[in-house]
Amino acid sequence: MDAASGEVIEVELQNGVVIIEGNNGVFMEPVRVLNSGYDMHDVKFERYYSRAFFTSVSMPSSGVTNEGSDTRKRKRKRVYNLNEKEVLAENRHQEVRSVILKAHEAFQATVAPSLRNYITFDGRDDCVPSPSKSCSSMQNLGIEEGEVNFVELAALWQAPLYEFSFSKGQVDCEEEESRTTPMFNTIIKSSSRTSEVAECGACKYLLPKSCTFLISDISEVHRLIPVGDSKDGFNLMVIDPPWENKSVHRKSLYPTLPNKYLLSLPVKQLAHADGALVALWITNREKLRHFAETELFPAWGVKMAAVWYWLKVTVEGTMVSPLDLAHHKPYECLLLGYLPSKIGSTSEESVQFTGSREHADLPDKFVLISIPGDHSRKPPLKSLLSKHIPGQRHAERGLELFARELSAGWTSWGNEPLRFQHLNYFRER
After folding, report:
1. Is residue 377 in some structural domain?
2. Which residues pair with 117 in a beta bridge?
3. What is the number of domains present in the chain?
4. What is the DSSP letter of 294?
5. CATH code of the domain in which 238 resides
6. How far apart are CA 247 and CA 256, in angstroms?
7. Is residue 251 part of a domain?
8. How far is CA 329 from CA 44, 232, 324, in A?
């Protein structure tokens, strides 16, 4: 890497997104991307990466490591035959393996050497809690002492009585006019061009610029459907469902949702009149991939367009697990598809999903590389997807479903969209 290329990477790292030239991918540092939505605060690295991967993956040695081990009786390895779904998953993996490897090699050669300089904890090594530390059930849910558990609060009979009070982003300024609004089942808009603070009792939550959110269960999501004119709908939707998962359920990490309820999400009704780009986060389980492609997208009226891959790395640049590990790949999938325009004919035959100016440049098998955040926190996709929304004459109208944090200028819905907005996650700029 020459000096000029190095300087470009340094600048791009400051902004949070580095293009991996010629390798159909980018590296993203999510904290710096999120910071652009606030005017007086920054996200704390140590809170975003509180379970971060700050050591390299220790690869198993193939040699003899213990003296005398050759004299022990070795257990004969059982031959495991893959079932049908596992065979399909392995075939998918082999199709993208070389693409992921190529992007990762380019990342290691260009970005990785400078990475540690841009993720800092202010010199405090005690900011990353030990994973062996015992946790209460609230902490297992990722909820720290002093924070509001919105899921439990919404289940109380007093839920309709809870309110937010709002003030401008300068938290300690008592002269600002404040307003109040119900906490649950109410669309809350922050039209301010500066960040605001929402207070609930002693808890304070920082709202990014010009954001909108709705805290509710799935039965109330219809409140976001545009009334009358669907040109008030959304042309970019990011959906991160709490997929059913035995491990998540066993550890009580977060509430999950049966797949059948996802079929009833009003995605088509939420869309803009000129169509929408839909991005769906999904795990590597073949059962879920098959469900999304054959049932979920058709139920929503979405036509598949591309698949992206989120490759998780450590701060040293290594993958968080071996690439070919059978049941724990170091990447997750993002399925991308388009909803057709509601203007004129809406039959599938009359809609051009490929070849048009809006869709032709949406890359397939695109690799997004980043260090994973805490509690299944996904990297923000706004800056990467906004250029691919249908109808370039329209401004971006973004919606995140099952959100756990807010985005500037976007609408967020879920049962805990303020999960990562507590002031504990920020520091004054």
Report:
1. yes
2. none
3. 1
4. I
5. 3.40.50
6. 11
7. yes
8. 28, 39, 7
Side chain identity at residue 10, one-letter code: E
Report how far residue 405's alpha carbon sits from residue 377's, in angstroms, rounded to the nearest whole number.
Answer: 9
Distance from C-alpha of 425 to C-alpha of 144, rounded to nearest angstrom: 11
Nearest by Cα to 186 from 226, 213, 167, 205: 213
Range of the domain at 402: 150-169+177-344+359-428
288, two tokens: 């879920």
Contacts of 192 (CB under 8 A, 6+ apart): 168, 209, 210
Distant-in-sequence, close-in-space partners of 393: CB < 8 Å, separation ≥ 6: none
Dmax over CA atoms of the chain, in Å, equals: 78
pLDDT band at 355; cut points 50, 70, 90: very low
Amino acid identity at 405: E
Q: Which amino acid is at 416?
A: E
In a domain, 5, yes or no: no
CA atoms within 13 A on the CB side of 289: 16
- Cβ 259 vs Cβ 311: under 8 Å: no
Q: Is 221 helix (H, G, I), strand (E, B) or coil?
A: helix
d(CA 20, CA 154): 44
pLDDT tens string 291-329: 999 999 999 999 999 999 999 999 889 999 999 988 789
State pTM to two decimals. 0.84
